[in-house]
Please model this.
Amino acid sequence: MNEQKLFIKIGDKIKEIRLSKNMSQQDLAAKCNFEKANMSRIEAGRTNLTIKNAYKISIALGVKLKELVDVE
Model:
């Protein structure tokens, strides 16, 4: 899997979990102290998500970090 596909799959996973919790992108961004535009880029797979930010997102979503990156 190339890195762009990986970024997209992780972004899709974040979006899937967020939607399953009836949370808006704006709400998730606010919980993570991110700009909404940044959260949009993450979910679209247009940015290389740092482990620190992935951890913030996992906490905000109430899931383990490994759930966000388990995309294979």
User: Anything to note?
Assistant: The longest helix spans residues 3-20.
